[in-house]
UniProtKB/TrEMBL annotation:
Matches recorded under Pfam families: ABC_tran
Gene Ontology molecular function: any one: ATP hydrolysis activity
Coiled-coil stretches: none
Biological processes annotated in GO: amino acid transport
PANTHER family in the cross-refs: AMINO ACID IMPORT ATP-BINDING PROTEIN, METHIONINE IMPORT ATP-BINDING PROTEIN METN
Protein name (database record): D-methionine transport system ATP-binding protein
UniProt keywords, alphabetically: Amino-acid transport, ATP-binding, Cell membrane, Membrane, Nucleotide-binding, Translocase, Transport
UniProt domain ABC transporter: residue ranges: 2-241
Superkingdom per UniProt: Bacteria
Length: 334
């Protein structure tokens, strides 16, 4: 487990204090993936550096399984970092070293003997699906293969935490899918606590168990993925269930926003209400996502002018959906 408590980082620039992290508190259990999302400048890169102790936090703590890494003296810092494996956006491999040499490098720094570190590197390359690539050089591998090497290298010291900084942003969709599947498999197999820094919602939806939104160095929203999506009108919910752009509306009426969570055999609330009222409630924009054990649907629908929108909202809420008025359509007042 990794725990961050009230983590702050302030940089001094041109005689001014610039806060980059402002009281970040997170807990990520073992065998789980926590995604941190946010716009450029939100503090994600600083968070990575502070968690990995590449940059000392101004205050606050980083703990792994109850051991406070931020309290470690500078002379013992390298040893403390072995509890963390870091995967960067670009694999940052040594071009002059073979793949085995790259994976074994952290063990070389730790003073592990040649035979032992070579055996460990071969084992890890097998784990990430590159058992036959040990004698190759980075230039001979694809981008996805190089990222796999980076993951193997991050696991060389048997860390408890895997920190992934935009691990798929430079990869094509197919390779991205492969790398995310690999991270999820390694998390389960090794019992890792994984922190993924990303701006890609596909990454969050694919592998995250929980998620936080970082803004101006602060955690604005956070929680288990399903709970975050279920918070109707929240930033995370609207981002993870982003509606497509719409052009043109089918008829006059009042639009409503609906967030529905259904099980495998359940009928969506909009469909159920429409059947009961004997009318069509046209959906002008919608998205359905299967996240965790639930299916979420977010819709923008039109309540025809002949119906009372309040009654429609009541019927939807009675069926467990969350719904609110959105806007008038075709000149009909709200």
């Amino acid at each position: 487990m990794i725990a961050l408590h009230d983590l702050k980082k302030v940089y001094r620039q041109a005689g001014r204090d610039i806060p980059a992290l402002d009281g970040v508190t997170l807990a990520v259990p073992s065998d789980s993936v926590h995604a941190v999302v946010g716009q450029s400048g939100a503090g994600k890169s600083t968070l990575v550096r502070c968690i990995a102790l590449l940059d000392r936090p101004t205050s606050g703590t980083v703990e792994i399984d109850g051991v406070e890494l931020t309290a470690v003296r500078a002379t013992e810092l390298r040893k403390a970092r072995r509890r963390l494996g870091v995967v960067f956006q670009n694999a940052n491999l040594f071009d002059s070293r073979t793949i085995i040499g790259n994976v074994a490098y952290p063990l070389e720094l730790a003073g592990v003997g040649r035979a032992q570190r070579t055996a460990k590197a071969k084992e890890l390359l097998g784990l990430v699906g590159l058992a036959e690539a040990g004698g190759a050089f980075p230039a001979q591998l694809s981008g996805g293969q190089r990222q796999r090497v980076g993951i193997a290298r991050a696991l060389a010291t048997d860390p408890d935490v895997l920190l992934c900084d935009e691990p798929t942003s430079a990869l094509d969709p197919a390779t991205t899918s492969e790398i995310l599947d690999l991270i999820a498999a390694l998390k389960a197999r090794l019992g890792l606590a994984v922190v993924v820094i990303t701006h890609e919602m596909t990454v969050v939806k694919r592998i995250a168990d929980s998620v936080s939104l970082l803004e101006a160095g602060k955690v604005i929203e956070s929680g288990p993925l399903e709970q975050a999506v279920a918070r109707f009108g929240s930033r995370l919910s609207e981002t993870l269930l982003a509606l497509p752009a719409t052009s043109g509306l089918p008829q006059a009426g009042i639009t409503i926003e609906v967030l529905d969570q259904t099980g495998p055999a359940e009928v969506p609330a909009l469909t159920s209400v429409g059947r009961q009222l004997g009318v069509d409630l046209p959906i002008v924009a919608g998205v359905v996502e299967h996240l965790g054990e639930a299916t979420f649907g977010r819709y923008r629908a039109v309540v025809p002018s002949a119906l009372d929108p309040g009654e429609v909202l009541t019927q939807l809420r009675q069926r467990g959906a969350q719904a609110e008025l959105s806007q008038a359509v075709a000149g009909v007042a709200r």
